[in-house]
Amino acid sequence: MKINSLLILLILLCSLVIGCATGKASWKQETVTSYESTSIVLTGIYNTAKPMCDAGQISKENCEKIKSLYTKTRSAIITAGDALKIAINSEDIFTQNASMELFQRSLMDVAKFMPELMRLANNLGIVKKEVANAEN
Amino acid sequence: MPKINAEDVVKIVEIAVPVIGALSKIVSEVKRQIENAEGSPEDKESLIKRIEEAQASIPAWEN
What is the ipTM of this complex? Predict the structure, then answer.
């Protein structure tokens, strides 16, 4: 009984230790995954908003607004991706730091435009339509 | 409070020592593999490819 309890305790302890060791994803992998998620959100907005604008379901004025915000956000995300590629590829710590600074600055631009874009997309019914498209 | 006699202690030690030894080897091996994977060129290439694919998936808004 005592030996069984000790074995259970040992198994639990070891599972925890192995879990900690294997659960450590590198910052590079985590950052790339976040980057991919952001690009998926932006592409989703485009895939719904553009056909709605082309079909005249959104006014010209609002289409221009959403196009402008989308283009700014896209540009910031592309720049962030370029900086991230250099940071991942670089062995030199100075280049890596400079690239990560550019990456963070670009992300701040994304963080500035993205909520505005999402708000507009929501107000214009783009998000609702996007959800409906995903369900079909 | 149950009493533990010398025989029990010997049994516990006999079981615990090889188990701990084997597990510490497993943990070291897992850590070594993670460290290798993080810095390997294959890993860098795959991450860069993922970024490029994400970039390419965002279309430019053209009239």
Answer: 0.75
Nearest CA to A58 among A135, A122, A136? A122
pTM above 0.80, yes or no: no
CA B43-B48-B50 angle, to 5 degrees, is: 95
Instruction: Enumerate the residues of chain A whose CB falls inside 8 A of the CB of residue B23.
Output: 10, 14, 17-18
Tokens of A124: 């214009």
Q: Tell me the pLDDT tens digit for each residue of A3-54.
A: 555 445 455 444 444 444 444 457 788 889 989 999 998 999 999 999 999 9
Backbone phi and psi for residue A15, each to the nearest 5 degrees, phi listed first: -60, -40
Contact A89 B23 (CB under 8 A): no
